[in-house]
Amino acid sequence: MDVIYGLIPGMLVLGLAAVAVLFWATRTGQYDDLDGDGRRILMDEDEEDVAPRRAPPMDADPDLNPTESRRE
C-alpha cells in the first residue's frame, strides 16, 4: 500500500508532462502539415539538378582511380 503513495503522484507528474508536450507540439506547428512529408518523398524534383556521377577513364592515373588494378 505504501508503494501506491509514490506511484500516484508519479503518474500525475508524467501525465501532466505528456499533456504539456502535446500542447507545446501543437503551438509550434508540429501537426500543421501531416501529408506534405509523405508526398515530398515521392517527388523526384531533385534528380534533374544533380549531374550523374561518372567513373574516371580507364587510362587515367592509377592513383586517382583506386578501383583499377595495378599491374607491375
Secondary structure topology:
Layout lengths: L1 H26 L8 H7 L30
Rg over CA atoms, rounded to whole Å, is: 29 Å
Cα end-to-end separation: 82 Å
Shape: elongated
Strand % is under 5%
Which class of secondary structure composition applies to the elements? mainly alpha
Largest sheet: none
Question: Average pLDDT, to the nearest integer?
Answer: 78
Task: Describe what this molecule looks like in 3D.
The chain has 72 residues and is mainly α. The chain is 46% helix and 0% strand.
Compact description:
Helix content is 46%, strand content 0%.
Keywords:
72 residues
